[in-house]
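Worked problem 6 (solution included).
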Amino acid sequence: MTEAKTKVNYTDDMVQTMLTMYAELGNDGIEQIAQAIGKPVRSVRSKLVREGVYVAEAKPAKAAKAEGPTKKELLIELESLVNFSVDGLMPATKEAIQLLIAFARQAESNRMALDEAYRDAEEAAEG
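Solution. The predicted structure is:
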């Protein structure tokens, strides 16, 4: 029966060098370790994981989102300003909904100004 050949990617000396350097340098030194033993960074990281010494870097905490009205609250506000259903706008971004609210408010302001100008013109024509 023939013996199966096993491919050795890391010699015992390479592993020892890697473990020693990792103990000194930590995750910041993985690139240096890779250069020292002539292996890719990903391979070195994988080998350190298999050896049980690699400690993954903590992911940065997510930045807190700016508080403000929810999409639902914005849609309720928009619906109070316009005379159509806003049910189909739920997939829209908050920014887009806020732009629609600003547009609706501006349109209402313009309408009120026109109504006032029309009343003033009527009064001037009567008197």
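Discussion: The radius of gyration is 34 Å.
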